[in-house]
């Protein structure tokens, strides 16, 4: 399904009066509103190819119909999102779920939709049909060198797919670890993993980055071989300048101070990318901003503080990606809500009065520090985010427009009710 520019303009026209009223009020209290709007327009969040279908739980999966049946249809879906919100201009592919059989065709199709290819994701957490050796007891950590070799070769293959598509980064998330005490020699598991990662690192093209993603638990429940940011940083430091830590919001133990983690990783020049989602208990993969929007704001606030201190470009110097699963909502609606939540947190973080905060910190004026942060957090920035969309030619209210257009109903008509997208 395609949405043409004209229908968006027509829709926006009907919303314009109400929007202008809200926008004028919001803009009147923002110092450099044009600068803020430009940053919002530049900021793009990559959509993972596996999030376009309905996810499942360990117990069941309830597909909603009209799911993309091929990589081409996944790209069309991300194109649709980008058309609606102007902020989803990238797609992150997972291999082998989305192997591009004809790279130049896939690249051209993405370009037609204004999309670029973000980080490529490898998969050594599942066994694939026809695969020689099993990852049941790990991949890069495995006691058998042949299994490690297979995992390394897979990652190199993923890099090759990425090169053909114009991507420039590889995300490695390993499910390696152990579920019972005594199962693993921790040091040997680390050394094997490091050696394997070094072999993949050696295959990275000059301009590529490698992101080492960590996770505290699951699928292994006693130890994870890349279990926290300290371990990830250890690997990244040993690997070299092209290796970075990737922070996934859901991959921490409860109540971890993620904003402090990103601050210190940025200080070390070792934060490479970010996976957005939200959670109440563990790696729940819920819609971004649905449970803890204040935490999301605090993380963004530290991200901007740290990036600005290093002169980094907010839009391009880190990999920004959603990594979530949608079990009960329409995946496209969920993704629209997620991107909106990210843009809101980003806009709020842009409004933090950094000078006032630094001065209050210097004075140990704790109450004032909180006031400064919450002044930004409690500002309703939604009209600013909407204005950025309007200027980008996207819809003022993407989710409402999505429903007005009956996008899902149309996709079901096009693709059928019983389609199942590859992915989680
Ligand atoms: Mn992730």
Notes on the protein architecture:
The chain has 15 helices and eleven strands. It is an alpha/beta fold and 424 residues long. Helix 5 (145-165) packs parallel to helix 6 (186-202), helix 8 runs parallel beside helix 9 and helix 9 (293-309) packs across helix 10. The radius of gyration is 22 Å and the shape is globular. Helix content is 47%, strand content 9%. The chain binds manganese (II) ion.
Attached small molecules: manganese (II) ion
Shape: globular
Radius of gyration: 22 Å
Helix content: 40-55%
In DSSP terms (H or I, runs of 4 or more residues), the helix count works out at 15
Largest beta-sheet characterization: 6 strands, parallel
Strand residue percentage: 5-15%
Quantity of strands, as a count: 11
Helix/strand structural class: alpha/beta
Strand ordering within the main sheet: 4-5-7-9-10-11
Average pLDDT figure: 96
| Uncertain residue segments | none
Order of helices and strands: HHEHEHEEHEEHEEHEHEHEHHHHHH
Q: Could you give the distance between the termini?
A: 24 Å
Describe what is shown at a glance.
This is L-rhamnose catabolism isomerase. With 424 residues, the protein is α/β, with parallel strands linked by helices. Helices cover 47% and strands 9% of the residues.
């Amino acid at each position: 399904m395609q949405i043409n520019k004209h229908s968006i303009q027509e829709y926006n026209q009907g919303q314009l009066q109400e929007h202008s009223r809200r926008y004028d009020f919001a803009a009147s209290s923002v110092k450099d509103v044009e600068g803020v709007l430009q940053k919002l327009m530049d900021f793009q969040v990559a959509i993972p190819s596996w999030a376009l279908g309905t996810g499942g739980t360990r117990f069941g999966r309830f597909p909603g119909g009209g799911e993309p049946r091929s990589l081409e249809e996944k790209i069309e879906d991300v194109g649709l999102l980008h058309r609606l919100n102007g902020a989803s201009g990238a797609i992150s592919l997972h291999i082998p779920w989305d192997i591009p059989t004809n790279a130049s065709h896939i690249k051209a199709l993405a370009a037609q939709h204004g999309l670029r290819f973000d980080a490529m994701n490898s998969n050594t957490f599942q066994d694939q049909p026809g695969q020689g050796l099993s990852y049941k007891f790990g991949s890069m950590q495995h006691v058998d060198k042949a299994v490690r070799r297979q995992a390394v070769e897979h990652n190199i293959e993923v890099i090759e797919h990425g090169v053909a598509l114009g991507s420039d980064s590889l995300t490695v998330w390993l499910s390696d670890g152990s579920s019972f005490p005594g199962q693993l020699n921790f040091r040997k598991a680390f050394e094997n993993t490091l050696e394997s990662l070094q072999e993949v690192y050696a295959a990275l093209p000059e301009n590529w980055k490698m992101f080492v993603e960590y996770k505290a638990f699951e699928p292994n429940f006693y130890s994870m071989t890349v279990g926290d940011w300290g371990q990830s940083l250890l690997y990244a430091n040993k690997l070299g300048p092209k290796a970075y830590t990737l922070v996934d919001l859901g991959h921490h133990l409860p109540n971890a101070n993620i904003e402090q983690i990103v601050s210190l990783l940025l200080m070390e020049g070792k934060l490479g990318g970010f996976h957005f989602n939200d959670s109440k208990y563990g790696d729940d993969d819920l819609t971004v901003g649905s449970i803890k929007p204040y935490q999301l704001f605090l993380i963004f606030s530290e991200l901007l503080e740290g990036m600005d201190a290093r002169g980094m470009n907010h839009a391009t110097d880190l990999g920004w990606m959603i990594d979530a699963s949608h079990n009960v909502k329409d995946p496209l609606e969920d993704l629209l809500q997620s991107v909106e939540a990210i843009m809101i947190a980003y806009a709020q973080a842009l409004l933090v009065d950094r000078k006032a905060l630094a001065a209050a910190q210097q004075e140990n004026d704790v109450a004032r520090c909180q006031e400064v942060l919450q002044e930004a957090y409690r500002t309703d920035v939604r009209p600013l985010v909407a204005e950025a969309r309007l200027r980008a030619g996207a819809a003022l209210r993407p989710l409402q427009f999505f429903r007005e257009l009956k996008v899902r109903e149309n996709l079901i008509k096009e693709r059928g009710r019983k389609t199942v997208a590859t992915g989680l």
